Amino acid sequence: MIVASTRAATGQYTDRTGPIIVEWLGAQGFRVDEPVVVPDGEAVGDAIRSALGASLVITTGGTGLSPSDATPEQTAALLDYQVPGLADAIRRSGLPAVPTSILSRGVCGVAGRTLVVNLPGSAGGVRDGLAVLGGVLGHALDQLAGGDHV
């Protein structure tokens, strides 16, 4: 669970999204450490790389249009392939309440047997994304572990 935020990493801001994701993952039965908070940019890629091997890596933040937002690029460089339908569904989930949700550039994909999911940096965007993820996560992880397409 990786938080991409230069302001949170430097102590200028208290991240509120990481704890939401950690709590949700725990409720899904995952063992999760505290969020890793890193500044935007290459540190995001380094943190993802360090987490690969887990069944799931979720990032929050750094998916917008700001010049410092680089989570999608850092993620894509590590993926074997993308799962664009998941990223699109996450974007669409926020659209009714927050039209700007379509400006998120988050990607989802697979690196080895690890599912990597970029979520937005807002609490609402995270909740919307987790609602989408909850409906498909078990099936996706089962497939990555070699399960059948049931």
TrEMBL record:
Pathway: Cofactor biosynthesis; molybdopterin biosynthesis. InterPro entries: MoaB/Mog-like_dom_sf, MoaB/Mog_dom, MoCF_biosynth_CS, MPT_Adenylyltrnsfr/MoaC-Rel. It holds the Pfam family MoCF_biosynth. Residues 1-140 form the MoaB/Mog domain. GO terms for biological process: Mo-molybdopterin cofactor biosynthetic process. SUPFAM superfamilies: Molybdenum cofactor biosynthesis proteins. Keywords: Molybdenum cofactor biosynthesis. The keyword Manganese does not apply. This is Molybdenum cofactor synthesis protein. It comes from Mycobacteroides abscessus MAB_091912_2446.
